[in-house]
Amino acid sequence: MSKESLKDKAVVISGVFEKFSRKELKDIIDEAGGKASSSISKNTSFVLAGDKMGPSKKEKAEELNIEIISEVEFINRFLDSSENSEERFNITELGLEQITYADLLGLYNENDIADIKKEIASSGSYDDDVFEFYKDDESGNIDVTLMMGSFEIIDHINSMKICENDPYIMIVKDSWSGENEEGEEVGYVSFEALYADEEPPTLKGGEYDKKSFMSNEELDEFNRLSENESIYMDDCKYQEFHFLRESEYNPKEWIKKWLSEDYGHNNHTVSGKN
To answer: Which one, of 114, 192, 111, lies nearest residue 201 by Cα?
Structure first.
């Protein structure tokens, strides 16, 4: 079935929409030869109504016997499959798959998202302090990468709509090296869990050593050495950022998983407490 034309249609947009922003709908109508308006008159072709449509607009449309259609009806009647297809993408670092731009609301507003889409359509990429978007020319798939390096990034992530019911915890790993009180070279790995009540334990062992859990005495020694600056935090290139949902966070289980994946240095049984 062929789609209806928007050419020369005068369309009033009112309310909040699920799939498109008001700006995107206006652009679609304008690009198709129609005219998007904010006020109803006898020349209005129809009203495109979303949630929370203005009651005065609804009353006037009914008074002038002007058709009121929903976003779904608008899509089915006027948009072809390419316009109707909703772009989806993954953010691997966050474990998010097949999400949409609407999931990013909160971090971005509707105008921001419309601008991001336009930039990707014209140049194939977009980046800011939080994400880098890249569209593959051959497949048309969009890859989204998290821009690491700032502790504030967790606040940006948790401002997204998709995180409102189950926010993320960010675990930052740092390695330490120096000399102990006997003058021996020592190394440690510590973790900071932002927005968590409990952090993973500090481990004994340098960046390229096998790690082990520490006794209370060994942990006290680490605290003394760090306070006395006998050991120091290594270059930030060894820093790691890990993200997981608050509902999935278990410090003991997480550290076991991290140890099992630590450069192959912990393929054997880890000494110390379980």
So the answer is: 192
